[in-house]
Amino acid sequence: MRDTEQLISELKSDPDIECVLRNAPMSEYCSFKAGGRADCLLVPRGEAAFVRVLSLIFGMGLPYFVMGAGSNLLVRDGGFRGVIVKPGADLRAVRVGGNLITALCGASLAAVSDAAADAALGGLEFARGIPGSVGGALYMNAGAYGGDIGGVTESAKVFTPADGAVLFLRRNEMEFSYRSSLFRRSGVVVLEARFELVPADEADIRARMAEFARRRAEKQPLSAPSAGSFFKRPTGGFAGKLIEDAGLAGLSCGGARVSPLHAGFIVNEGGATASDITDLMEIVRSTVFDRFGVMLEPEVRIIGDDIQTPL
Ligand SMILES: Cc1cc2nc3c(=O)[nH]c(=O)nc-3n(C[C@H](O)[C@H](O)[C@H](O)COP(=O)(O)OP(=O)(O)OC[C@H]3O[C@@H](n4cnc5c(N)ncnc54)[C@H](O)[C@@H]3O)c2cc1C
Question: Measuring from atom 37 of ligand 1, which residue has the nearest CA?
Fold first, then answer.
């Protein structure tokens, strides 16, 4: 904690840092609206500050975690002992040039998809309703309705805190696979991504986006806080179907419930703790395993410590 304090005092009046928050309530920064606190939340404004801060934290040997929009993230109730770094306002720019769109890591997928539609470029329609950032999307290889971000990513500018190197990776170097990528298996941080799209009719693009939005609204519990589909799709099936077939739709644990509308979602019905959510997750995993022999793996990133109960 002393080192985190040292970092906070070093950065608290730095003009390139948008926000330095001690004991940050991460429930306010995660779409689940649940979870514990981080020792420190740092929001660097632009790319230079982002890289500088990560190098500084790495050099001090502090535990750290880079987050995006927090739409696939849960911090356990005991909190995160270290620094969470979140890209700030100057890391949200989106630029169109020819068939390419370049977006900084903090840009929302909605903003990037809208820019594509405005420029009559097709290929990102699937991403319009995914509530994440570009960095989180590359890390997770976010996808929907037959598309995924790896399929349209041409290259990315990345930073490796371990050796201080900023470099460009081509798509084939990013090892995209179902809900995974090189970023998920390494400490490499996405700074910016370039998407290669195809000219298309703007009205057709918007019609596809509207159709996907309609399907989401019909099938997903969008009015309650969640992190989207909680589990990865198991080989040869769908997590939601297995959960429903196991009779678990509607099951609740404290303020967390398996959505009756889409059993692949765990929703926060109000006041859920992170442990309500993870306890429910474990009940779902063990019941589905007992019934069907399939061990579901969470898609949601779960970090931090449980609350320690005194002996
Ligand atoms: C209602 C709802 C619907 C959803 N629908 C979908 C869907 O259809 N398809 C889908 O795939 N997902 C879906 N999601 C999940 C989520 O939106 C995606 O996984 C998204 O890509 C997460 O991005 P994020 O910026 O919120 O990342 P975060 O949740 O902040 O972080 C997720 C991971 O990405 C890493 N990360 C974030 N930024 C960077 C960076 N710059 N460099 C390296 N790593 C980084 C973090 O370390 C973390 O491990 C949905 C979520 C919700 C709430």
Answer: 136
For the segment 175-212, what is each residue's pLDDT rounded down to a tens digit? Answer: 999 999 999 999 999 999 999 999 999 999 999 999 99
Give the gyration radius of the chain's Cα atoms: 20
The answer to whether the predicted template modeling score (pTM) of the entire model surpasses 0.85 is yes
Q: 71 CB under 6 A from ligand 1? A: yes
Please, which residues have CB within 8 angstroms of residue 194's CB and are 6 or more apart in sequence?
100, 101, 102, 103, 153, 154, 155, 156
Three-state DSSP at 116 gives helix
Atom of ligand 1 nearest to the CA of 184: 49
User: Whose alpha carbon is nearest atom 35 of ligand 1?
Assistant: 136
Mean predicted confidence (pLDDT) in 233-241: 94
Mean per-residue pLDDT over the chain, rounded: 96
Ligand 1 in contact with 31 (CB < 6 A)? yes
Which residue's alpha carbon is at the smallest distance from atom 8 of ligand 1? 144
Pick the CATH number of 92-205 from 3.10.20.30, 3.40.640.10, 3.20.190.10, 3.30.465.10: 3.30.465.10
